[in-house]
Amino acid sequence: MSEPRIIVALDYPRAEPALVLARTLRPELCRLKIGKELFTIAGPQLIEKLMQAGFDIFLDLKFHDIPHTVAAACKAAASLGVWMVNVHASGGRNMLLAAREALATSPTKLIAVTLLTSMNRDDLQEIGWQGEPNDVVQRLALLARDCGLDGVVCSALETAGLRQLIGHDFDLVTPGIRPVNSRLDDQQRIATPRQAIQQGASYLVIGRPITQATDPLATLIQLNQAIAS
Ligand SMILES: O=c1ccn([C@@H]2O[C@H](COP(=O)(O)O)[C@@H](O)[C@H]2O)c(=O)[nH]1
Fold it and tell me: What ipTM was estimated for this complex?
């Protein structure tokens, strides 16, 4: 069986519901993502339990700070044995290089967030970032690649362009995945799972469409079928 391409975002306020959901899912069908909310409350202990259950973990803490601090944080995160960690590409070259250097001998993947999938053109203008979302994503992805990172977080709307620009040896991790007829919630740059894979995404981050489904396992199986066919 090929590696799982879906990463389920466990955005929960406590460990218990995350563990309950994980017990219904299977490591051959998905990886799991732990973000700021759940890690703040449940920490390394929960990661350990989920890894013992066989899941690869993406620790999505999106570090963004001075280079020394981010390097130390990445090292601490990777020491938990997680599969993937991330930083914000907008932290700049020195921060990205420091993060890369900190994980130089680690098997943990290091990727950078380009532009949050909850942001659109107007949001960009308001914070004074030049260009369209696609331009910003390409600029930051090239910077991340130059600094030796393993990939970036972007929306599926930018993946085809990034594949042309950067090629295939670079992970493109895409949140903002919404199956047809599902709620947008706070996401703005979205695509269906199938569109994302067709456009060149390596991994799809999917939270609420799975975690809030009546039957999360059945939904995960359907989504895997949709991206396989
Ligand atoms: O640009 C980004 C970066 C990270 N995320 C995270 O992905 C999930 C998406 O959850 P949904 O419920 O499927 O919207 C969430 O944990 C975010 O923190 C993102 O959405 N966009």
Answer: 0.99
Domain hosting residue 88, numbered range? 6-228
> 152 lies in a domain?
yes
| Threshold 0.95, pTM exceeds | yes
In angstroms, the CA 186 to CA 94 distance is: 31
Which pLDDT score, from 0 to 100, does residue 229 have? 74
Residue 139 Cβ contacting ligand 1 at under 6 Å? no
Going from the C-alpha of 229 to that of each of 59, 91, 130, 143, 199, the distances in angstroms are 29, 38, 38, 34, 14
Residue 186 CA: nearest ligand 1 atom is: 14
In-domain check, residue 177: yes
In a domain, 1, yes or no: no
pLDDT in tens, 15-58: 999 999 999 999 999 999 999 999 999 999 999 999 999 999 99
Total structural domains in the chain? 1
- Residue 5: the pLDDT is 98
pLDDT tens by residue, 203-221: 999 999 999 999 999 999 9
What is the CATH number for 35?
Answer: 3.20.20.70
Active-site residue flag, 122: no
Q: Which of left, alpha, beta for 128 (phi over 0: left; psi -120 to 50: alpha)?
A: left
Ligand 1 site-directed mutation target among 21, 205, 219, 223, most atoms within 8 Å of CB? 205
Q: What's the gap in Å between 165 CA and the centre of ligand 1? A: 24
| 127 Cβ neighbours under 8 A, 6+ residues apart | none
